[in-house]
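Researcher: Next entry in the queue.
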Amino acid sequence: DWSADVSTKPTIGDATAANQGTIASAIANIQNNTFIGTNIPAALELPASSSNIVHIRVIFNDETGSPKNLDSGNPAITLINQASVDLSGRLGSWTNPATGEYVVPYTNTATDSPDTLDWNVTGTVNSKLRRWVGSTQLTNVIAVDFTATDRTNLGYLLTRLGTPANGGTVAAKTDLIATNAADSPNAVTAQGNAATAAGHNNPLDAAGTRGAVGLATANLDTQLVGITPPTAIAIADSILGRDIANTEITASAHSLVTLILAGVVKANTVDFPGYLTIYRTNGVTVHAKIPIAIDPAAEPIDGVG
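Model: Structure for this entry, 305 residues:
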């Protein structure tokens, strides 16, 4: 490991005869480890779904900088995360497509967790060990395809909001958008169109409101002059002339409706003994059953007045 050589060996300033051999060895180790390169990424985004293959390439050179195959076999890789869990199972088999070039597939899977991968790649060329160490940060998916439809939708949104003036931001404009989708401009417009199609002018302006209630102008004093409210007699006549059939369904047993039904339609104490049974205007439906008390000893009333 050349970093250890740099941190523990004497500096050039200490190049006494006794230290020259040690310094030369450290420099040789540093030089050896400049003859290895790789495309291992510093950051790798997890896919949104399924998985994809990332081809890891490692290049080895000899002391002259020319591509050179390893003395034997394939590179060795240690792949662990920050918890020192072995993740080498994500790697496939090595191939050697060109002199000094070695390729291994890494499977990048959507279900993997964001993590830091620590790589240690080694190989021997001309009896000299080459080593590469580094890290890859796995991140959650942050990018998706930006389609033509997305662009159209954003353009429509900006048109609806209006271009921000004097360096303003779109964010300030979006404060005008309803948080409830049902209250959005499109929804309100659609509701208004449906109401118009149904013959309703929604919403009505001031003139439309006056027209709806029969007022020609905004001057209420002028409009109310010709309006004559009904008299008490007219109201009473209207009530008394109303057919009982219109109210019998909702009338209670102790209402005037019940009294009228008992007097002009049908009522008896035979159908349901112990009750005064009062029928509705059809003569069949029971309107009310009122309990009665019978005393055979009581003297009847045979006249009034």
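Model: The longest strand covers residues 128-139.
Researcher: Noted, moving on.
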